[in-house]
Amino acid sequence: MSSEAPHDRIAEAFARVPREPFLPVAERRNASDNVPLSIGHGQTNSQPSTVADMLRLLDPKPGDVVLDLGSGSGWTSMLLAVLVGPTGSVLGVERHPELVESSRAAIEAVTDDSPDRETLAEVAIHEAVPGALGLPAQAPFDRILVSAGAQSLPDQLVDQLAVGATMVIPVAGEMLRLVRAGPGAGELTITRHGRYRFVPLISE
User: Can you give the residue ranges of every domain in the chain?
Assistant: First the structure.
């Protein structure tokens, strides 16, 4: 497999999953703009180039079980559904009930309209549990994507990574990629990948 293969897969996912259905009607005319767009409740549909950067760092593989934390509009969850395919699964977590409902509707509509829906992973969007981060009862995960900024690295999420798994998370404004090399808390490899702005990660 060439080094460009993950990039090709991500470009294919973007080509297959339109941004428009995941946006409020008033924002759909801006769907092709490379900017974050408001989806209400103080949340945004992230800038496409940022989403692409994060997906390249995450490098999800077919068959992976992925946690999409801060799933918002559901667009990133749907992109992940293309990337992990029918043998994988995507579990989104969103703290705003209205966005949980609208994202489920958008994912269902896009899936139903897909001519090759049998190539997509199942996507389930969960409402966040107050005081908890992620879905500890469903762990461990092969990949965790966090689309909200943390002030420090959350141990709760590290604990939900399988051995060999990867998490991409903005911490204190810097994009981090973590790989869990072994079961111990110290067995993490962390690399840093530039500065980004995100809404804050909240567990209340």
Answer: 5-195
Task: Write the DSSP assignment of 8-73 as a string of letters.
Answer: HHHHHHHHHS-SGGGS-GGGGGGTTSSS-EEEETTEEEPPHHHHHHHHHHH---TT-EEEEET-TT
Q: Which amino acid, one-letter code, is at 202?
A: I
- Could you tell me which residues are beta bridge partners of residue 145? 68, 168
3-class SS of residue 192: strand
- Please say if the pLDDT value at position 4 is more than 90: no
3-state secondary structure 98-117: HHHHHHHHHHHHHHHHCCCH
Q: State phi, psi for 43 to the nearest 5 degrees.
A: -110, 160
Instruction: Supply the pTM of this predicted model.
Output: 0.92
Q: What is the CATH number of domain 5-195?
A: 3.40.50.150
Does 3 have pLDDT greater than 50? no
Residues annotated catalytic, as ranges: 46
Q: 131's torsion region: left (phi>0), alpha (psi -120 to 50) or beta?
A: left
The residue type at 21 = P
Record the tokens describing residue 56, joined without a space.
Answer: 């390249």
